[in-house]
Amino acid sequence: MNIASLVVRAKPEHFALLEELYRGIPGVEVHGRCEQTGHMVVTVEDGEGYATTDSILAVSMAEHALSVTLAYEYTDEGLELQEA
Q: Where in the cell is it found (predicted)?
């Protein structure tokens, strides 16, 4: 499992368009937005047939996304190799 949390900076007048675009990207979900600061909180989760890295790239390359910051990332890959 791979999960990432992103903060997207955009002009508030483009929030609706960005949310619509993000709905079409696999594993992407918009959780909140602040029109006063121009920030959106987005999560990306991997799934069958796509990787979080591809979805993160699609979020950051979306038209009207001014910047994207990776706020949190989690993976459980390789955990079975760790000793207690």
A: Cytoplasm
What burial class does residue 84 get, using C-beta atoms within 10 Å of its C-beta: 0-12 exposed, 13-18 middle, 19+ buried?
exposed
Reading the block at residue 25, the tokens are: 């990207």
- Specify whether domain 2-76 bears CATH 3.50.50.60: no
At residue 77, the pLDDT reads 78
Reported as type and span, the H/E element at residue 17 is: helix 15-23
How many CB atoms are closer than 10 A to CB 3? 15
Query: Hey, where are the domains in the chain?
Result: 2-76
